[in-house]
Amino acid sequence: MKIGSFVMGGLAGAAVVMMIQRNQMMSAVAASVGHNLKHRMNDMKVDAIEKALNMKFASSFKRATDSVSHKVQNSSSHGGGLDEIEKIVAQDPSVSHEVNAILEQNGQQRI
What is the top-level taxon of the source organism (predicted)? Predict the structure, then answer.
């Protein structure tokens, strides 16, 4: 950019500012436009931050739920959830005692 163009642009900008300051109507319009622009830029910033955080947490949440659903599918395909737990609990009396204590605290029936 030539220095002459830069100076002319600066002078034109200063002339516009002086014109806006002298005219109350133009000053009110400029203030309104500035306020709206500031409000929209703030909204865009908040939206961008929100989208970035949602992408980060959504992807980790998706991976976590995928691994849990994979584990549930594997456990159900191996022979049936609660039946398998009852077999494990029946093998060890101390585990059976602990499970029964927890179930009693929750008001459920004992195994």
Answer: Bacteria
Give the contacts of 95 (CB within 8 A, at least 6 positions apart). 88, 89
Reported pTM: 0.37
User: Nearest to residue 75, comparing CAs of 64, 84, 62, 86?
Assistant: 84
Q: For residue 18, give Cα distances in angstroms to 6, 33, 42, 84.
A: 18, 17, 28, 83
Closest-CA residue to 14 (of 33, 6, 32):
6
Residue pLDDT, tens place only, 94-110 = 878 888 888 788 776 66
CA distance 84 to 78: 9
Residue count of the chain: 111
